[in-house]
């Protein structure tokens, strides 16, 4: 449900409240104080309902471009040191637990999607398993390849939006109301542009990875790339952050952001607001606007992509080239001695069978 529909729904509920009061003989025209009181009561009811139904754990879904550093960022957050990071082939799960003083343990489920190719069913796993109420998403894009990342961003957003829409149609009205209220709070309830946005019902942070490489690009490329990402983040009601594991300051901001989305602390991981394309962008939820981004006005995803494609032509590579991956059986990171020995034995048996078939074929040809 888009935000204009949310506002319309809230308006209709308030209108019904005042119609009932009118039938009871009271004034038909509510005062500003009456409206403010009713809104406060409505918000208080939602907060109480949310408190009674709040989940005891949170879920973080990380997806995006290949080889951009998703696994490394997760491992660094959990203080895991790996000499050779293995490529994520499908969907991997991990979790973290934090115990505060006098508080019950907090649990964060972390799902990492390895590839966006044909990933619709995999996307549904964390979203349907844990639900939308406690879900947060990080979309990591490779800034070192601005001529390729739009396809990843578009694919990630369409997959998330499609699954979210299907789930929102089936959730209870009370939960839908909570999710819609949270969405409005993220984008800013006083934001005059809410009707021009198409936000997702959960927080999304777009992370531009490999900023250390991107910072050396031509200023025009950086300007167009930043405008594209700002436009997309604003459209979906998300936040935007540039990141590089080689730059400790940026790595800490991402670490704090993961902690915020998974455990709720720190309360505000973005300690600065940066919109200059000459610097690493850092824009919190609801802190941007179409007028600040440029003079093009409100835009749709299709228009953002078309404009970016003109400014920075996107490489249309063959799908098989986009899916270039090493054979996991030959990857040293996936070595298993017992399995490798059995596979070698089966390969030898298969080779022997093939030789027998060839010899039998030659013998039969000679006899005829």
From TrEMBL:
GO terms for biological process: intraciliary retrograde transport; intraciliary transport involved in cilium assembly. InterPro entries: DYNC2LI1 (IPR040045), Dynein_light_int_chain (IPR022780), P-loop_NTPase (IPR027417). It comes from the Eukaryota. Keywords: Cell projection, Cilium, Cilium biogenesis/degradation, Cytoplasm, Cytoskeleton, Developmental protein, Dynein, Microtubule, Motor protein. Gene3D superfamilies: P-loop containing nucleotide triphosphate hydrolases. GO terms for cellular component: axoneme; centrosome; ciliary basal body; cytoplasmic dynein complex; microtubule. It holds the Pfam family DLIC. It is found in: Cytoplasm, Cytoskeleton, Cilium axoneme; Cytoplasm, Cytoskeleton, Cilium basal body; Cytoplasm, Cytoskeleton, Microtubule organizing center, Centrosome. Belongs to the dynein light intermediate chain family. The keyword Cytoplasm applies. Its main location: cytoplasm. One of its GO terms (molecular function) is dynein heavy chain binding. The keyword Protein biosynthesis does not apply. This is Cytoplasmic dynein 2 light intermediate chain 1.
């Amino acid at each position: 449900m888009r935000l204009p529909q949310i506002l319309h729904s809230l308006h209709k509920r308030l209108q019904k409240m005042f119609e009932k009061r009118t039938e009871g003989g009271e004034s038909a025209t509510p005062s500003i104080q009456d409206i403010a009181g009713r809104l406060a009561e409505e918000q208080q009811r939602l907060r109480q309902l949310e408190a009674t139904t709040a989940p005891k754990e949170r879920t973080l879904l990380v997806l995006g471009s290949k080889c951009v550093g998703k696994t490394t960022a997760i491992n660094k957050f959990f203080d895991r040191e790996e000499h050779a990071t293995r490529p994520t082939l499908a969907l991997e799960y991990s979790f973290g637990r934090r115990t505060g003083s006098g508080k019950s343990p907090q649990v964060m489920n972390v799902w990492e999607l390895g590839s966006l190719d044909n990933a619709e069913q995999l996307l549904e796993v964390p979203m349907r398993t844990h639900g939308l109420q406690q879900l947060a998403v990080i979309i990591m894009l490779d800034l070192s390849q601005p001529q390729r990342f739009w396809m990843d961003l578009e694919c990630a957003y369409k997959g998330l939006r499609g699954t979210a829409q299907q789930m929102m149609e089936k959730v209870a009205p009370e939960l839908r109301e909570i999710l819609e209220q949270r969405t409005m709070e993220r984008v800013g309830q006083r934001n005059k542009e809410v009707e021009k946005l198409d936000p997702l019902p959960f927080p999304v942070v777009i992370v531009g990875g490999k900023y250390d490489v991107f910072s050396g690009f031509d200023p025009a490329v950086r300007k167009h790339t930043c405008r594209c990402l700002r436009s997309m983040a604003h459209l979906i009601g998300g936040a935007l952050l540039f990141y590089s594991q080689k730059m400790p300051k940026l790595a800490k901001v991402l670490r704090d952001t993961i902690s915020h989305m998974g455990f709720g602390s720190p309360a505000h991981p973005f300690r600065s607001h940066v919109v200059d394309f000459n610097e690493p962008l850092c824009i919190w939820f609801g802190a941007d606007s179409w007028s600040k981004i440029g003079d093009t006005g409100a835009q749709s995803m299709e228009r953002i992509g078309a404009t970016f494609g003109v400014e920075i032509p996107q490489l249309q590579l063959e799908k098989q080239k986009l899916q270039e991956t090493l054979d996991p059986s030959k990857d040293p990171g996936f070595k298993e001695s017992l399995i490798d020995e059995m596979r070698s034995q089966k390969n030898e048996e298969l080779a022997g069978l093939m030789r027998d078939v060839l010899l039998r074929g030659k013998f039969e040809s000679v006899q005829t």
